[in-house]
Predict the 3D structure of the following.
Amino acid sequence: MNPESLSAAEKGSETKPKPAKLELIKVKSSLDQSLQPSMLWAPATAKTTPTPLFVFLHSWSGNYKQNNAKWLQEAEQRGWIYLHPDFRGVNQQPEACGSRLARQDILDAIDYVIKHYDVDQSRIYLAGSSGGGHMTMLMAGHHPDRFSAASAWVGISDLAEWYRFHLKDGVPQNYARMILKSLTDKPGTSDEIDAEYRDRSPLFWIGNATELPLDLNAGVTDGKTGSVPFANTINAFNVLAKKNHTTPVSEEEIEQLWELGTLKDPQPSDQVTDETYGREIHLRRKSGNARVTIFQGGHEGLPEPACEWLSKQSRDTSGFGKSTPESR
């Protein structure tokens, strides 16, 4: 990708240390039979020793060639297999942007790795930032039983709302134009178009993921200094909170974070110190297997806290696809 085309979250994914050498693999789509690329790295022992699989998803304007070396470095240091699938590349065509084809590309790439390596299927981890955060939440909602845990950063949860956020005096700006290329028309045009927006928006599916350990994160200034308002993350958490019959984050609290950057009356959990983040925490809530964190920062993903949290999760996924069909 041309560096000029990358958002702040994507630029923040880059790092100077020389990463492990990635291998290009091509996996046949089980839906349209096309060959889809992924980048892969595995420790030498992964052929014979059960090894965690870390699936990291590229961002909105990126593809499988995107430099996410900090995330790769975390995987390498932990001895995890690192998989970086393409899922139809940049979100500017109907086949991309959370389509059924794009979702299946991720599943097919995981199946390829399971076939060729000794994957510990109780430790299949998923993560992504920005557009990768959108896709992480979407995969969690559509296919919650495929993953042992998922960590999503500054992701889009409702594409129709995000389209409207990127209108200026009614005129679509860059991300809104990309949505139009992906969804073919604006929300509200027809029932068919609205159904596509819903199918590709995590907000309408993440309620399926109550059994999945899920870590949702956003910077408190995102939406002002960045392109995705942090309410996208909180709204996704609130779907799970309501499903779990626990207290959601209130509209008043969301408004305080937006206007003040902090809560007037924080709960004890909001005042936690988490050294892995290296940032002040403004809000942290839990509901069932889900956790939401709003930290001091903008449109960015933090590899160390994501991978540290993931490393503590274990959940068997070996039965995926062997009994009942997955929800779509």
In short: The chain has ten helices and eleven strands. The first helix runs from residue 8 to 11. The radius of gyration is 18 Å. Residues 1-8 have pLDDT under 50 and may be disordered.
